[in-house]
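An instance follows:
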Amino acid sequence: MAAEFLTGGWDAQMVVKECLGCGNVTAHQHLHDCAHGIPDTHMAGSERFVCELCSHIVRATVEGAARFPFQFDKVSSLRAPRWTDLR
């Protein structure tokens, strides 16, 4: 598995990981949307990593998302909820 590192920029953070789309170890831009007109907020479900090479998008809800360092959205296990999970 590839080493992970973050690089900070003015508006974006980068993480180097194996891309789920093209299979190359490449930089992914870490993005999320703010609430309209309210800076420093987070729109639930908008966090994503975009491959700089092939533009493949990884969201917290896709298989393999656990290898990316999501900060806002919870990574789902993609399994159907059981009745006991709803109590």
User: Anything to note?
Assistant: Residues 1-11 have pLDDT under 50 and may be disordered. The longest strand covers residues 25-31. The radius of gyration is 14 Å. Residues 53 and 78 are 26 Å apart (CA to CA).
